[in-house]
Amino acid sequence: MLRLLLTLLLVSCAAEVAPRAEPGDPRVMPVGAVAALDGSYSEGDDLSFAWSVEPAEGAVLNDAESPFATLTAEAPGLYTLRLEVCDAAGRCDVAETWARVDDPASAKRITDWGIDEFAGVESGAGALSAISPTKSFCKQCFENASKTSSEWEDFCRELEKQGASKEQRAKCWAHTHKDSGERGNYCRDMGCRG
Fold first, then answer.
1. Of the candidates 149, 160, 189, which has an alpha carbon nearest to the alpha carbon of residue 22?
2. Domain boundaries of the chain, sorted by first residue
3. pLDDT in tens, 68-82
4. What is this structure's pTM?
5. Greater confidence, 8 or 63?
6. Which fold has domain 27-123?
């Protein structure tokens, strides 16, 4: 009897882990390619999965209720890939990544800011403008550039609160697993000097 009570006590005191969605890294792909999406690194028990893509036109999701969905790129564009995971208790979490689809037969490419004919930032084409490069923002950007990937992710999450566009946030997330030099280039692309 004592063993049964002890077992029940230990089981009932086990920490419940809230679900955490992990949609994987951003990707760049040509029209016609099929990308394997992997949400299996999401955390939680007895998870259900729901993938979605925005805009829905130009890309097709298969197995959207599986941790391993596929994305078929039918048209050039920048697509937001959203993964929602829910546990048996009804708790859910949503996370996003993105896919950029380029048309290899065109001289144009889809940049994170729109269609560009390979113009550089110096020309003004494709320059970021939703966040003004304030001294405070630039200091924060360069400081986080040399920190860990998880600290860089925290910085990217804060961009939304600072008024960053979806494209600016996607560009930030694309630098999560880059080195500090690449992240510093992101800060310079945002208009910071350093």
1. 149
2. 27-123, 135-189
3. 999 998 988 889 999
4. 0.51
5. 63
6. Immunoglobulin-like (2.60.40)
